[in-house]
Amino acid sequence: MKSVASPSSQIWVLLGLGLAGIYVLTRKLTQAAKQDFGAFILKLNLLPPPPPAPPKAPHPLSSLNFAISDIFDLEGYVSTFGHPEWERTHEPASSTSPVVSALVESGATCVGTTVVDDFAYGISGENKHFGTPTNPAVPNRVPGGSSSGAAVAVAANFVDFSLGVDTSGGVRVPAGFCGILGFRPSQGAVSHVGIIPVSTSLDTVGWFAKDPDVLRRVGHILLQAPFVMQRNPRQIIIADDCFQHLNVPLDRTSQVLIKTTEKLFGKQVLKHINLEDYISSKVPSLKACSIQKSNGVLKSSSLKLLANIMQFLQRHEFEQTHNEWMSIVKPDLHPAVSAQLNEKFEVSDVEIENSKSVRSELRIAVNSLLKDEGILVIPTVADPPPKLGGKEILSQDYQSRALSLLSIASISGCCQVTIPLGLYDKNPVSVSLIARHGGDRFLLDTLKTMYTVLQEQVDIAAPSKSSKSVVSKEQSAEIAKEKGNQAYKDKQWQKAIGFYTEAIKLCGHNATYYSNRAQAYLELGSYLQAEEDCTKAISFDKKNVKAYFRRGTAREMLGYYKEAIDDFKYALVLEPTNKRAASAAERLRKLFQ
């Protein structure tokens, strides 16, 4: 360790050559206006390598930008780990985390590091040292933690995706509280090298996005999973007991999943389960974790016992790694973190071994329940986000209700994705899908398949604020188009496609709807579909400049360069001042002279 002064007065710091370009860091000033919702610790540009020349395909994450929780190593920089004392007493990293490097090499630009709870330990997202990031969905409530800044950066549209660390909910909770997608991969699926450990056996690198396709594309890079044909789920299992004690009506949570499943896969895929009973019967080692029994029956529920084990492991492993530093430095902690780390704590070998047995048995139980093509549906969290500065999140009851649900994936090591389901009583609502350990790619594929219909069902379930008067198909199509335009502005490409498709179903001879959907397809790299939609648009409107330009772009990416040049030239005939078409036509003409 090294004692170094924090350069708070330093605004711009040139660190030199990075992985694929020069990156410049901006120090976040405490008194600075929170134009970034307080999400960022540092602003930077870690640039990707130049794109390959045609006809080679572009980098898979080309044009996307991202942020990282301030727990990942960046060469030449000291991560704060959520606390200024950590930054003051540690040396700069000698290399960049391989996870961050992989994303940059795949074409994404890293634009900043973001706030986490003290030592990435809590689930509130509050940080008194760097400031609590503002939740864009509900500004008077906590953003959720530990990866609060990373979630806020996505929710506020500052970045396309972001990285966090999920130990006991560090990605899933802020995703649920901020109303965005959050993915916790299977334990061990993504490298932990170059990341400050919280709890070595529970930590996973997770990521956030608004668009399910972006979430999936990032997953393909980080998981490095072999390609497999996309499969539909054979079973979608609703954990009915987990939904019974929520403050949100079932028609806004589990029923949305049920109706989506019936529409996409049929009723035969649905199954219902009492998850607590299942876990009690399949994880016998839990019995040793409860001292209080009545006639041999556990008084504590199986999920609460799992939560206790998760907290035990997190505390034990954190102390194993950081206890010496904590004892020397004695850092000032947020009350929520202090309540856990400063509580009297004793560990026995028997407890450690029993915890390992529970983990092994639970993974086997969940894998047996879900097999290769099953999905378990649970609430992400039991309660809405607590108010900022309140004591609710400090209560044992709140923590127990939240951690009971979060412990299922943390202890079993299975993968989980948090999915937003709109608002209820002005607070974000979400559910989570869990797949077996190692089923990460299947889970991301399933999310992509279900997402558009899920959001349609959310809109149906939510009470309409619009007039109840009957509207024509043309009016309904325009409403769907406008929703698509807004989703496109929010960079939710898949959702935009869903709305444009709805508009086309209602009014199938409108060139604009096809042309707009083509643009969303281009963003996803679906060039064949984009070309088809543009051709359809042109068949309805021979003077649609955007359709010609977008078809030219699609054809260029597909390698049809002569046809692309023709489309760009025709766009110029219709609109001689179109600089983008002129530039594209000239670029291709020079390339193939």
From TrEMBL:
Signal sequence extent: none
Repeat (TPR) residue spans along the chain: 511-544, 545-578
One Pfam family hit: Amidase
UniProt keyword annotation of Transcription regulation present: no
UniProt keywords, alphabetically: Repeat, TPR repeat
Source domain of life: Eukaryota
Domain Amidase: 59-214
PANTHER family named among the record's database cross-references: AMIDASE 1 (PTHR46310), OUTER ENVELOPE PROTEIN 64, CHLOROPLASTIC (PTHR46310:SF5)
Protein name, entry field: Amidase domain-containing protein
Organism of origin: Vicia faba (Broad bean)
